[in-house]
Amino acid sequence: MGLFGRKGKKGADAPELPDIPADAPWSSFADAAGRQWRSGDLRGAVVLWKQSADRWDGKDEGFLRVYRGIPRRFSEKVVSDISKGVLHPCHQLAELESYMSLKFPDVTASVCRESFDSVSSKLDRMDSDDHVVLLCMNCFYLQIGRMGWAADIRDVPLFCRSASALAERSEGAAEKHASEGYMGSMNVKMAVRTLALYKGFFDQLSQDTEEAVRSRPLEDIESAVAYWSSAPADRTLRLAEGLNAVGRGASAGITRSNRRSADAAISAFIEEYFGKGSSR
């Protein structure tokens, strides 16, 4: 999908940020974050939103109004850009939510969940089969971002179910364009097959995660949760590799190699989670 670079190139694609005085109030950084996102730079917007949070005193209600308004602005941009063929790196929004959860645990707003719900609710507005798939891809990346930053791996099956349910609903939405005689830029059968493959990926990820949890003692799970809660880190890359393998299979015909790559990505994701936090 082109959204993830290779390891070892950290900083190579660092966002260009506006020059804001370090002692500027939180609102200056929040305003800049909004402009950054409107320009299409989500990574830069997340950096600025985090800098805004660093300057919040924990009391100013204005900050909370801005933060809670992120899902609306986020979904408006994502949905608007679908007609332009844009797939945003939506997984990056999860970094902001993780940062806020650690820094201000009393702030309960889930910008990722609300953004997913808002974008996915626009499914019926899509006017072609390829737009249906692109909406789903934006939502799928948002979900793997949530999984990649999740402190508790037991949340992963829940995120998978939301993604899988969206894929299933979207198959019907794509088929609708064929029944109406709409000639989209993507073959409808290809769109339906693509969505079915992505649904299969999330179903497999959910199943493998649940099996991994069942096979481990509770103390190992709690140890891992404690580790990732105190030391949040982005583990999204593994899941992106799995999604990309499925995507290649959808466009070229699914092969054993594609399936093995997707399965290996899921295994690596689970192993990375327990490998860092396990008490063993």
3D architecture notes:
This protein is mainly α. It folds into two domains: 23-121, no CATH class; 149-280, no CATH class. The protein is built from twelve helices and no strands. The chain has helices at 26-38, 42-54, 61-68, 70-82, 93-103, 111-120, 129-149, 156-179, 188-214, 218-230, 236-252, 256-277. Helix 5 (93-103) packs parallel to helix 7 (129-149) and helix 9 (188-214) packs antiparallel against helix 11 (236-252).
Q: What is the secondary structure topology, with strand pairs?
A:
Elements: H1 26-38, H2 42-54, H3 61-68, H4 70-82, H5 93-103, H6 111-120, H7 129-149, H8 156-179, H9 188-214, H10 218-230, H11 236-252, H12 256-277
Helix pairs in contact: 1-2, 2-5, 4-6, 5-7, 6-7, 7-8, 7-9, 7-11, 8-9, 9-11, 9-12, 10-12, 11-12
Outline of this structure?
By secondary structure, this protein is an all-alpha fold. Helix content is 69%, strand content 0%. It has helices at residues 26-38, 42-54, 61-68, 70-82, 93-103, 111-120, 129-149, 156-179, 188-214, 218-230, 236-252, 256-277.
Instruction: Tell me the number of strands.
Output: 0
Mass-distribution shape:
globular
Unreliable spans are 4-12
Distance, first to last CA: 36 Å
The averaged pLDDT comes out at 89
Number of domains: 2
* Order of secondary-structure elements: HHHHHHHHHHHH
Strand coverage percent:
under 5%
Please report the number of helical segments. Answer: 12
- Structural classification: mainly alpha
Give Rg in angstroms: 19 Å
- Percent of residues in helices: 55-70%
Largest sheet: none
